Amino acid sequence: MTPTQLQNVAEAADTIGQLLSQNDLAGASAVLTPLTVPEVVELVDRLSIEDAAILYRLLAKGRALEVFEALSPGTQGDLVQALRNAEVTTLFAEMDPDDRVWLLDELPASVAPRLLRGLTRQERDLTSGMLGYPQDSIGRRMSPEFVTTHPQLTVAATMARVRGALDSAETVYTLPVTDHGRRVVGVVSLRDLMGATDDALIGDLMHEAHIAVVSEDAETAARRTTDYGLLALPIVDGEDRLVGILTIDDAARILKQEESEDAARQGGVEPLRRSYLSTPIRRLVRSRVIWLLVLAVGATLTVQVLDTFEATLAQMTVLALFVPLLIGTGGNTGNQAATTVTRSLALGEVTPRDVLKVLSREVRTGFCLGLLLGLLGFAIAGLVYEWHVGLVIGLTLVAVCTVAASVGGMMPLAARAIRVDPAVFSNPFITTFVDATGLVIYFLIAKAVLGI
After folding, report:
1. Nearest to 273 by CA among 265, 283, 282
2. 51-98 pLDDT, tens per residue?
3. Cα gap 253→222, rounded to integer Å
4. For the purposes of burial, counting CB atoms within 10 Å of the CB of 3, is it exposed (0-12), middle (13-18) or buried (19 or more)?
5. More confident of the two residues 264 and 113
6. CB atoms within 10 A of CB 382
7. Could you tell me which residue ranges the CBS domain spans (predicted)?
């Protein structure tokens, strides 16, 4: 959305909030009517969930479904719990199976059976089948509604299939080509079909298919879809039979959610289920307090190191002046390495098997950074204080940067190797670890160089 649109939505949110507080539903509806669907979605994200539920009831039925499907799963979950049972049942029945699973993952487990009972037998079977796949697998994010064709079918017969499934299929722009055992043997695009003669065989038009196994990690499959620029990625079961497809818009949605979670956890907070402005204060506190407690406990290591080397500081108090500089530089170096390697893991550029290569690169990178900063620190500290103090600072910067880059680069790989989200090893955690290690290195070098 443009800045002007965002400003308009912000003003509309303030106006509607005042009207709802006055119970002026007609006035709120008048403000809501001219807004586009994206603007209504942004508006819902700015309101409290109670006001959002009232506002949602003011939308026409068709528009309400468009808005609901465009909301984030977290907002959908909160909105469902704020609406009446009859409204929720109607909404749930009109959603696509993959969108239903997104929603159910955000709701309490006790709510799912009640919502599933309101579906037709066919829709219930489709949705329940997807819920049976592992959490975070592509099976829970694919669409089981698709159109297939066969190598021996003609273009005319395939186009008839497409026209018959326009209302139910997730997409018709890329069609999986399957054999009689439902195994994927290729894909054909709608563009190819429209450019061919009616009697042309699909087997002569189809291309090699990229596929994903239903139990594969959703982020990995989504990344492959975007990397190859696919409009749809066929999903197969353990016996290579087609069970669903992942469309490009769903792949982008998965990656957006995963990247938001990674960014939050690298900053030492839990990801928010809703937008910042509509998230209650208690939930903001809950998303941050756990990591703060963990980091506070970790910071006691730094305090313990300072206590251990108290005598060293007492003999040469000038060393205390450089503590913030050294631990800050080490933490920043570790954070840079961790962020770079985490991103490379997400993009598939490195794997845990590349640990030695990554370690080698980070050791050299950290050493070079430390050498540059160390020379600068040596010159400045030597000129301002004494040259042997400058030598301590220079050597410490070289050592701390080397260690910090190595640790920061290794932690995401270690996390992936033990099947933990690399973002869990967040930047604040690395900073705390490097702080304590950097102080030990600093005081050991000072004792060796200064003889204290």
Report:
1. 283
2. 888 888 888 877 888 888 888 888 888 888 888 666 777 778 888 888
3. 9
4. exposed
5. 113
6. 16
7. 142-205, 206-261
Better-scored residue on pLDDT, 130 or 11? 130
SS3 content of the chain, % helix, strand, coil (to 5): 70, 5, 25
Pairing relationship of beta strands 212-213 and 232-236 according to DSSP bridges: parallel
In angstroms, the CA 27 to CA 318 distance is: 67
> How is residue 252 written in tokens?
């982008």
347 by DSSP, 3-state: which?
A: coil
303: number of Cβ within 10 Å: 11
DSSP state, 198? T
> Which residue, 198, 200, 178, 179, is CA-closest to 187?
178
* Cα dist from 140 to 73, 100, 177, 225, whole Å: 13, 10, 22, 16
CA distance 71 to 82: 15
Inter-residue contact 331 to 430 (CB < 8 Å):
yes
Domains, in order of start, for the chain: 3-134 (1.25.60.10), 155-266 (3.10.580.10), 281-450 (1.10.357.20)
3-state secondary structure of 282: helix
Cα 333 to its chain centre, rounded Å, is: 24
- Any residues with CB less than 8 A from the CB of 160 and at least 6 apart, and which? none
User: How many whole angstroms separate alpha carbon 78 and alpha carbon 74?
Assistant: 6
With a pLDDT cut of 90, the percent of the chain lying above it is 32
Q: Specify whether the CB–CB gap between 79 and 53 falls below 8 A.
A: yes
DSSP letter, residue 270:
P
pLDDT level of residue 114 (50, 70, 90 thresholds): confident
Average pLDDT over residues 252-262: 84
Structure-block tokens of residue 274: 């809703």
Confidence of residue 266 (pLDDT cuts 50, 70, 90): low
pTM for the full model?
Answer: 0.71
Alpha carbon distance 303, 436 (integer Å): 8
Q: What is the pLDDT of residue 424?
A: 65
Residue with tokens 């990625």: 233
| Predicted local distance difference test score (pLDDT) of residue 225 | 94
Q: Is 419 left (phi over 0), alpha (psi -120 to 50) or beta?
A: left
SS3 207: strand
Length of the chain: 452
Residue 91 pLDDT: 79
Taking 70 as the threshold, does the pLDDT of residue 2 lie above it? no
Q: Measured between alpha carbons, how far is 396 from 410 in angstroms, rounded to an integer?
A: 21
